[in-house]
């Protein structure tokens, strides 16, 4: 074989090998991105208002819509043990349980507290706004796995993005939401947990920010597990935003916090 022909053949084989490696790399990236985005759930800023009764539908609902519209059907499709588990968890965090009542083809969502049961419509608008948030957090903690993309021995990584979870809640209950987030994050570190859950939360709640600092000071969460990204109006360019990062120290004190940010 002539030297020139050999070098041309070798060059062509090298190109084929590189092209093959490229396609393998693209496939690996595609699989990684698919796995990541399939692990992301979203709850929007305005959840639908609760109704007194919902028409019962024999549907198995496996996820909660971003506006919480299908929450009644989601709760109604849970098995009794799972619904009781959800109710117990909500009661531990917020002081009231949740039940689903069925009658004549309709269902209702009730809150249970101290032996009393009351329809969610009669409890205030804030409850209807926070229940989809709580249900989504609880459901993601259950660790439902997609075996197509998750190795059997790996943790199930999940990200929940929530806009304004504190809407229409009393400031004290806004602070309790911080406890919910921290409790969910602390559960991921246990050896029995299959879920590595993270949160991306957009909020305007001073109560939640302050409560997170208190929980850091108590040692319930490490400061490195929290980061606050502050968006403010740009002083230099109208219509643009300045972005600033803030963290907590080990005493729960905010670092690099803009002066007067919560002032009015």
UniProtKB/TrEMBL annotation:
InterPro entries: AAA_GajA/Old/RecF-like, Bact_Antivir_Def_Nuclease. Residues 101-209 form the Endonuclease GajA/Old nuclease/RecF-like AAA domain. It comes from the Bacteria. This is AAA ATPase-like protein.
